[in-house]
Amino acid sequence: MTAYSKTILCLANSRKTSGRCIAGRELINGQLGAWIRPVSSRENAELSEEDRRFENGQDARVLDIIRIPMLEPRPNAFQVENHLIDADYYWTLDGTMTSAQAKAAVDGAGTPLWSNQSSSYNGLHDRVQTEATLPADGSLRLIEVTDLEINVVVEGAEFGNGKRKVRGRFTHGATQHYLSITDPLAERQYLPAGNGVFPVGQALLCISLSEPYQGYAYKLIAAVIT
To answer: Best exposed site among 26, 163, 169, 175 by fewest CB in 10 Å?
Structure first.
């Protein structure tokens, strides 16, 4: 039985294992509140297509205003925004915002993206060592950048498992970042164009910290909003 509902401005609908990760800022009487990440009861908490569907069969999209039936808060480590959905009920579409309106949701303008002390083999300032610097202030940010570049590259070839990957390069707080993109719309747009560097410029980026993997949480571009 549904315990409560949350209405969010959807700011991410990104890939996660066999499903999606949805996230957004709560809307209360038209005012933006805290971040909310609806999750399922599956092992990796991803949302299936059925989980995130409206009654008309449409999938939740970035910038949709969505009312979601919930069962209980389900925080996981530093992912304090998680709430368990009631999978027995459809989500409700209450409207849509423009990207210009979504700028009001930017919340990472003056602060670093957590810690900038660690980089992966292919990335730059793209992970946080969870044992040393476990974030206490949540795992989601919406930032605005002016110099976004989309890179389509082959990674892992030197290890015998090369795959084409989409990454974003940008500057935030005078620090350059090079992060994996898990926004499926961005992947569908840029992967067919072949390998290369594609200047975008100004964009809103939803940055999400992944669940810990081998001692690190990875910074992911969960949505590219232009």
So the answer is: 163
Residues 182, 197, single domain; the answer is: yes
Q: Give yes or no: residues 169 and 72 share one domain.
A: no
- The Cα–Cα gap between 61 and 192 comes to 22
What six digits make up the tokens of 168?
């974003």
Q: Among residues 128, 146, 143, 138, which one has the least CA distance to residue 218? A: 128
Contact 221, 168 (CB under 8 A): yes
**30-42 per-position pLDDT tens digit:** 899 999 999 999 9
Contact 165, 154 (CB under 8 A): yes
Show the CA angle centred on residue 35, arms to residues 116 and 165, nearest 5°. Answer: 50
Q: In the numeric block, which tokens belong to residue 225?
A: 């909003």
Q: Is residue 133 domain-shared with residue 210, that is, in the same domain?
A: yes
pTM over 0.70: yes
Share of the chain above pLDDT 70, in %: 97
Quick one: pLDDT at residue 14?
Answer: 96
The stretches of the chain forming alpha helices (DSSP H) are 99-102, 184-190
